[in-house]
Design goal:
The structure holds two protein chains of two kinds.
Chain A (H helix, E strand, L loop, with lengths): L2 E12 L3 E11 L3 E5 L6 H8 L7 E6 L2 E3 L3 H5 L2 E4 L11 H9 L7 H10 L13 H14 L4 E5 L7 H18 L2 E6 L2 H7 L2 E6 L2 E7 H7 L1 E6 L11 E7 L4 E7 L6 H6 L3 E7 L2 H19 L1
Parallel strand pairs in A: 3-8, 3-9, 6-7, 7-8
Antiparallel strand pairs in A: 1-2, 1-4, 4-5, 9-10, 11-13, 11-14, 12-13
Helix pairs in contact in A: 4-5, 5-6
Chain B lengths: L1 H38 L4 H36 L3 H5 L4 H15 L1 H17 L7 E2 L1 H24 L2 H24 L1 H15 L6 H4 L5 E2 L1
Antiparallel strand pairs in B: 1-2
Helix pairs in contact in B: 1-2, 1-4, 1-5, 2-4, 2-5, 2-6, 4-6, 5-6, 6-7, 7-8
The chains are: A alpha/beta, B mainly alpha.
Chain lengths: 301, 218
């Protein structure tokens, strides 16, 4: 498998309290890679690091074959970027912004840009500073898509947008991705939205990547088990235990990952009995993954 | 790319540029119109003095225009967290060169105002035989001063806030130390004065600010 983005041992520090530590990340070519994490977990900083906007303290970043930050300008020519907040010059009109943006990208598709402008119902003479939040979101997505990027880096692209605008923006994104096979790295804390569009998922917390796996593994591999007479774990379990909580009586509730149905026999080998296997939705899986990572971090500290 | 950068810079700065162009155009005319009725036309010495006042006004306008354009251009990006500028596919060096050159191009507007205003003002005056007007060279000096002022402010602003503070602090320390040294160490005085003279007189780097600014001269 080739990767559009490769990050190894990335470290970055901002102030006394925030740091990204030893980050390793692989974004497969052609994937829609969801980047989940609570606010302040380091998602935006990681995106800015991989776009060459911030200098890493240590580690290596390669984006579309270009080493970052040295080759950032070459990589950026092949990337469509939507930041979390409006970043465009407020005194320019929509049409002027499109012309200005186009002048930097040899791959700019003026016909497609105009089509998207009409689809998004953006007035060409409207000043960027007077756009509503929804219109601004649509304009940023327009600019990102019209450069015909091989990689889209989207930082909370639908955060704060109303459902209609969100649907328009996501529809345009998915249409482009299905037509061109572009790679998408989309950061968000909207778990259900990620579930709809992503085929890979990574979870970040406290500047560390706590999980990275294909979406199907994340969705189907994390389960809540209800166990009567739980075993003492003298033999290692064939699955990962994310959480272990006391239930009623002799029962315990385990949250496990990498679960497969044939693993029930592991409990039968001991004195335990597996009472129930509950599927978790993505949001529950996300919360349990975070909780396990924080517990592990707390124990390590 | 350059054309679009120029256009964006023009939209950022056009209000101030219009203001400075207007002031640069009218300042020589107003100074001479106010001064002449009180002077009569025969006093060459007074005319030279008024020409000097025009020159100082133009120097101040040029420096202010250069610094404002640099300050304002940076301010727009600063308010946006520099995200857009940094996300464009150009090297930082190239982006900075484009910003600086477009600003230099735009600073010619107030200088054109200086040139035309000074030429018209000088044309109103019946100069004695030994006096000449220097509208063209005053405009040229104004352009250099505006560019240099812009370059200094641009370098300071774009070198990031913390570094800019360090540069300013270091400059203050250096100037203060030199001032103290000229008093405390008489043997160093001559060297320091010579260095200062080199910096502020032609062809020193800041000579254009401190040279003779005048519209009318012998």
């Amino acid at each position: 498998m080739t990767h559009a983005i490769t990050i190894d041992n990335l470290s970055y520090r901002a102030g006394q309290h925030f740091a990204i530590r030893d980050l390793r990340m692989r974004v497969p070519n052609g994937s829609v890679y969801g980047f989940l994490g609570p606010n302040g977990s380091g998602k935006t900083t990681t995106l800015r690091l991989l776009l060459g906007m911030l200098p890493p303290a240590d580690g290596t970043i390669t984006v579309l074959g270009h080493e970052i930050p040295r080759g950032a300008h070459r990589a950026l020519a092949r990337i469509g970027y939507v930041p979390e907040r409006l970043h465009l010059y407020p005194m320019l009109t929509v049409a002027e912004t499109m012309r200005h943006h186009a002048s930097f990208y040899p791959t700019w598709d003026a016909t497609e840009a105009e089509r998207l402008r009409r689809t998004f119902d953006l007035r060409a003479e409207q000043r960027v500073g007077r756009l509503s939040k929804g219109e601004a979101g649509k304009l940023m997505m327009l600019l990102a898509l019209a450069v015909r990027p091989e990689l889209l880096v989207l930082d909370e692209p639908t955060d704060g947008l109303d459902p209609v605008v969100r649907r328009d923006v996501l529809a345009a994104l998915l249409e482009y991705v299905s037509a061109h096979g572009a790679t998408v790295l989309v950061s968000s804390h909207l778990v259900h939205e990620q579930e709809r569009i992503c085929d890979w998922i990574a979870v970040m917390d406290g500047g560390r990547l706590v999980a990275e796996m294909p979406m199907h593994a994340f969705r189907s591999g994390i389960k809540r088990l209800r166990i009567a007479g739980p075993p003492p774990l003298t033999t290692p379990a064939p699955f990962g235990i994310l959480a272990r909580r006391a239930g009623t009586g002799r029962e315990e509730e385990w949250v496990v990952r990498d679960w497969r149905d044939d693993m029930t026999s592991w409990f039968a080998a001991g004195d335990a009995s597996l009472r129930e296997v509950v599927d978790l939705d993505l949001e529950e899986s996300f919360v349990e993954t975070l909780r396990a990572a924080r517990d592990a971090g707390g124990r390590a500290a | 790319m350059f054309g679009q950068t120029l256009y964006v810079q023009w939209k950022w700065n056009r209000d101030f540029l219009a203001f400075y162009t207007f002031v640069a155009f009218t300042a020589p005319l107003i100074i001479l119109w106010v001064a002449l009725p009180h002077l009569g036309l025969s006093s060459a010495r007074e005319l030279v003095r008024i020409g000097g006042v025009v020159g100082i006004a133009i120097a101040v306008i040029s420096v202010c225009a250069g610094m404002t354009v640099a300050w304002q251009g940076y301010g727009v990006d600063e308010r946006l967290g520099h995200i857009y500028a940094l996300s464009l596919p150009v090297t930082r060096t190239r982006a900075l060169v484009m910003r600086a050159t477009t600003a230099f191009a735009l600073l010619t507007l107030p200088v054109i105002g200086v040139w035309i205003g000074s030429a018209l003002a000088a044309a109103q005056v019946e100069l004695p035989a030994n006096l000449h007007s220097y509208a063209g060279s005053l405009a040229g000096r104004a352009l250099l001063a505006a560019w240099l002022a812009h370059a200094c402010m641009f370098a300071l602003r774009y070198s990031a806030g913390r570094r800019a503070k360090i540069v300013l602090f270091t400059l203050a320390i250096v100037v203060g130390s030199l001032g103290f040294a000229t008093e405390a160490v008489p043997s160093a005085r001559a060297t320091i004065v010579r260095t200062a003279e080199f910096l502020i007189s032609n062809p020193g780097p800041f000579g254009v600010f401190f040279g003779r600014w005048t519209l009318l001269d012998v």
